[in-house]
Amino acid sequence: METTNLSKIKREKMLYTINEIKKNITDEETLNNLSLIENELTKKKYGLVWEEHIEKVDMDLINQIPTFEEVKNKEIFSSKDECFNFLIEGDNLHSLYLLEKTHSKRIDLIYIDPPYNTGNKDFVYSDDAVDLEDGFRHSKWLSFMANRLKIARQLLSERGVIFISIDDNEQSQLKLLCDEIFGSEHFLGLITVVGNPRGRDYGGIAKMNDYLIAYSKTSNYVLNKIEDEEHKFKTIDEYGGFELRELRNRNIKFNDKNRPNLCYPFYVNPNNKDEHGLLEISLEPHEGFIEVMPAMSQGIQTVWRWGKEKSLKNLNINIKGKPMKEKNRYMIVEKYRDEKVMPRSVWWDKNTNTEKGTLLLKEILGDKSFDYPKPVELIQRICEMGTDKESIVLDFFAGSGTTGHAVMELNKKDGGNRKFILCTNNENNICENVTYRRLNNIITGYENSKKEHIKGYNNINLKYYKTSCIPKVNDDNNNLKENLMKNIVNLIQLENGIKVDNSTICVFLDEEELDKFSLCKDKLDNCQKIYISSDILLTSTEEKIFEENNIKVYVIPEYYFADEIMEVA
User: Fold this and answer.
1) CA-based Rg of the chain, rounded to a whole angstrom?
2) What is the pTM of this model?
3) Which of 71, 217, 420, 491 has the fewest beta carbons under 10 Å from its own?
């Protein structure tokens, strides 16, 4: 039975009234205003609706063009064979604006931990801290997030996924916003992450958890399976990895109505042990075998964990018999665990505890410089779920730099070659004093609180960028193209993960420089790659010289700043 849509009836009545009014009006301005009202009435009627705001950084983009400046004394260079990772200091909207030029459809995993907008001034909008008294608290947060998530979607590869940490304050709003931006059909799930098992004893209910919300770029995407933390190897012996579990189920007491299929005898030969000292076992009686039933508990018969069919299936694979205690014999299961499982919707283990992240950061930095950093293992698990060994990982709310740490740790674990790009502002010097210092310490090594030297990661390269802006001006005193081209090297390095050292890798912006280079044998011998402006046309002689010297030639993409140059031309 079709229901009556009262809202639709009201809208149609208002639209009819507006059309009737328009018939008697000739003033163009009034007609235009009525048309605007019509447009508002015909907009979508389901989804998230909020008062859209524009922040200061949005206004900056109207009259200025973001660029990057490299902080060369913060470069970490340990291997000429490795690509670079990047730490970008500045407003992440500016960073995303530029990353859209260099990394469109190239990012396999985005993880972010944005401000939760608790009302306790943890969220700053247009240089003002937002508190509970702000009537547009949620609208400002949604405007802030929407601008960034729209670009984030463009950065995701076809197999890309995004994970966002959030708590109760904005979780429901974020879900609707992401449905709109990424598509509800691309929703992968909502994970409850228990970060404080003891609970925070304030408010109506002691809070124990935050959330992870996950979306894919395309439909039918399946996350990688991860290690089964609950049943991870607990015993390593000559058989490999095992979990020792008692086959008897202590929690179920037997009666004729309660799991009768779980109460049956095993038969054990006490005189026949294999090379490992384990007893021969059967589900059928044999001469000389001892019958073993589940032990009694407080005078009541218990049962086995497995039914007879499952025990028979696994008898020669992972069940070994051991009589335990002379008068209370029962079975022990040694169960091999090497499988991975689909990620679960509730994470509650030692690797999700926020305190673990805090303690580790204090060890690395020697002080408590950042509140509530995520545990490395938590982000590492996300990376396992959403990347392959060659993926690029982006975090544009990088905070203390846990994502970079997690990527390095996962690469160390599985031999991967993942790269990371971290973006964060420098409010309270966080980027310099926390994010960079952490990355520097774990890459080069550090001394912990016990005065032990912790060895750094090998073969990690890092570049440190700051965002800056160039005015959208092109006149006699300011040549916009020249000003932008001065910063082009930083985009080349970012897009390709390289270091332009003007020796093995060179950039040429005018023909005269290139002509001189092509005639210098020493420079040609050292060079491997050159990047040239799209304005430069190679001569046939230069093409031959570069080919004979095995120098690869790349044209600097016009998409870096072509639109901005045309806009003010």
Assistant:
1) 32
2) 0.79
3) 71
Residue 512 CB partners (closer than 8 Å, separation 6+): none
> Which residues are 321's β-sheet partners?
279
Nearest Cα to Cα of residue 409 among 447, 341, 347, 357: 357
Helix, strand, coil proportions of the chain in percent (round to 5)? 35, 25, 35
DSSP E strands, 388-427? 392-395, 419-424
pLDDT means per 10 residues in the chain (569 residues)? 68 88 88 86 73 85 92 93 95 96 97 94 86 89 95 97 96 96 96 88 83 94 80 48 59 63 82 67 85 78 80 58 40 52 88 89 88 93 96 97 97 95 94 96 92 89 95 82 86 96 94 94 95 92 96 92 77
What is the tally of structural domains in the chain?
4
pLDDT for position 261: 79
- Main-chain phi, psi angles of 270, to 5 degrees: -70, -10
Dihedral pair phi/psi, residue 450, rounded to 5°: -90, 10
Smallest CA-to-CA distance from 144 within 129, 124, 162 is with: 124
User: Based on the domain organization, do 75 and 147 belong to the same domain?
Assistant: yes
Q: For residues 224 and 244, state if they share a domain.
A: no
Q: What does the longest C-alpha to C-alpha distance in the chain come to?
A: 108
Q: Residues 224, 245: one domain? A: no
Structure tokens, 322: 């051991």
Sheet strand arrangement including 529-532: 505-508, 529-532, 552-555
pLDDT at 189: 96
If phi > 0 it is left, if psi is from -120 to 50 it is alpha, else beta; for residue 497 that is left
CA distances from 308 to 50, 303, 323, 480 (A): 60, 11, 19, 80
CATH number at residue 192: 3.40.50.150
Instruction: Return the closest-CA partner of residue 542 out of 515, 524, 569, 523.
Output: 515
Task: Tell which residue, 106, 172, 148, has the closest CA to residue 397.
Answer: 148
Shared domain for 90 and 159, answered yes or no, is yes
359 and 447 within one domain: yes
Asked whether residue 484 is assigned to any structural domain, the reply reads no
285 and 218, same structural domain? no
Beta-bridge partner residues of 194: 209
Q: Give kind and range of the element (H or E) at residue 111.
A: strand 107-112
Whether residues 98 and 196 share a domain: the answer is yes
Residues 363 and 215 in one domain: yes
